[in-house]
Amino acid sequence: MSELVTIFLGLVLINNFILVRFLGLCPFFGVSKQLGSAISMGIAVTFVMAIASLATWLISNYILLPLDIEYMQIVIYILVIATLVQIIELFIKKTNLGLYFSFGIYLPLITTNCAVLGITLINATENYSLSGSIVAALGGGLGFTLALAMMSGIREKLELANTPKSMKGLPIAFITAALLGLAFLGFGGIV
Amino acid sequence: MGKFGKEFAKGIIITNPVFVLVLGLCPTLAISTSIDNALGMTLAVLIVLLGSNIIIAAIRNYVPNITRIPIFIVIIATLVTVVNLIFHAYLPATYEALGIYLPLVVVNCIILGRAEAFASKHTVAQSIADALGMTVGFMLALLMISFIRQVLGTGSLSVFGVDLFTLPVLGEHPIAIFILPYGAFIVIGLLMGLFRRTGVMKE
Amino acid sequence: MPANKKFWKQAFPIVLLTIVVAVCVSLLSYIDSITREKISAQEDEAVKALITDIFPDMSRYEFKNDIYTVYSDDTKLGYAFLATGKGYGGDISILVGLSDETTVKGIKIVSQTETPGLGSRITESFFTDQFKGVAINNVALSRDGGKIDAITGSTISSSAVVNAVRDTAMEKVKQLEGSD
Fold first, then answer.
1. Does residue B100 belong to any structural domain of this protein?
2. Is residue C46 classed as helix, strand or coil in its secondary structure?
């Protein structure tokens, strides 16, 4: 149990997906201008990460390893993720059209989100158990959502601040991300 | 030559993948801790981008719309796996240094982005030019960031094991933050701001 | 005729996708077969290099139950095994060499992600050399009564290594004595 807690906390705070591992940056800088959409995005990504982790763990341990075709890992993982995102997209379209439109193009883009493929690869390299993988996905996703939410809150304020013209928009956002990450350094001693 | 040259040059400054299009950030920031790593990643991206652009441009007239994305993904994933295996076997040091960011080239927005936006709509020759231009732009951006991070963060510069120089003050007390992930954000933010200020690259 | 063409038009995407996948899988399978040997040879080389760092006279080794028994021809030089410590930035992987069931021959940090310039200095010889010839029971930080000085400013990294080495060594020795 404590091992799971360690994995979880480690991914949320210490090896935060965005601020430390650089996974999931594209939506980070694109979506995060409004707190509401940032959080929805975060939850959507976490959900995909969790299911993808489950699916890829099963495939890895019951198909890839026994058949000794580990080299198919990258191809199969990304196809699984792409399919998952398609299914989820159809599901949202059928059940909540408003949500579907608010996500816009960012929903299919979850497929190319480094965080999703990233967590499946991390699970494989660190050789986590099934529960470890899912906990890792939830932790990574939560960290991602956390960073996204904080970033959007700060950026809302930044829009009103007196930033030098050339730094407006992305450049100052990057510096903010650096400062956010530095703040997270303080969590280092927890585990 | 004119058209080829134009597509090529475009990728370097006007539509620089990192500073202007802001694509492919994940590997850029993670890998930019040293010049060696930067060059290793560039090689990987070159092979995959060139390969995928060529193949996709070649089959662009035969691919029906529905299966477009899955086919692109399979092709790119295959190329990345090939590079992964070859690096693991023949360039082990680079393989270790790149870590999970090497397989992550699969979802590197630059590659899928160019496949969708360019290779599927232009000839093979033009796609080659585009791939080369984008890779050079990517390489320059990566080298710039890595150079700054490595020099300020470790106080010295060494390429492929050859020590080039060690700075007098920084050598003893390097500014460690630059080698850490946060430093990457700082460097790219400042560089972007600098490029916009001097008008070299627009938004 | 028209029915045939319509069927073909609908089936084509799937057929193309299948062909592409088949080509890719064959390519990958081929590349895998030519690189596979090199890759596993590499891993053996890496382990051998690490063990030789601790036991320079090693000529061969045997691996059983996660413990390497190191030999120089027919003379047993000692044992080696991997220990993992929970460092500041993640897991620290350490190769521990024992000259016998009670003394450490030396250690080598295999992988770590500690803070550069601080905790990452556990890889340097001024730290690792301290372990040479120390009795397993004395593998502890000096502030805890042992023989190893921590690195200034990196107590977490230092104690992670120290604890991992001592605890795993005791575990492995028990394992060895149990199997005799």
1. yes
2. helix
| Parent domain of B50 | 2-197
| C79 token code pair | 């044992």
- Alpha carbon distance C20, B2 (integer Å): 34
Separation between Cα atoms, residue B12 and residue B7, nearest integer Å: 10
**Domain total of chain C:** 2
For the stretch C127-175, pLDDT in tens is 888 899 888 888 888 888 888 888 888 888 888 899 999 999 888 888 8
- What is the ipTM metric for this complex? 0.80
Round to whole Å and give the CA distance between C8 and C2. Answer: 10
- Please answer yes or no on whether A29 and B188 come within 8 Å at the CB atom: no
Pairwise CB contact (< 8 Å): A75 & B100: no
Residue B203 within a domain: no
User: Do C123 and C175 fall into the same domain?
Assistant: yes
What's the pTM value of the predicted model, to 2 decimals?
0.79
The pLDDT tens digits for B97-147 are 888 888 888 888 888 888 888 887 888 888 888 888 888 888 888 888 888
**Which of B31, B28, B33 shows the shortest CA–CA distance to B18?**
B28
Q: Which two tokens stand for residue C53?
A: 């760092």
How far apart CA A49 and CA C157 sit, in angstroms, is 31
Contact yes or no for A22 and B181 at CB 8 A: yes
* Residue A16: Cβ within 10 Å count: 25
Coil, strand or helix at C80: strand
Q: What is the pLDDT of residues A55-75, one digit of tens each?
A: 999 988 888 777 777 788 888
The beta-carbon neighbor of B107 closest among A75, A117, A185 is A117
Residue in B88, B76, A67 with CA at minimum distance from that of residue C36: B88
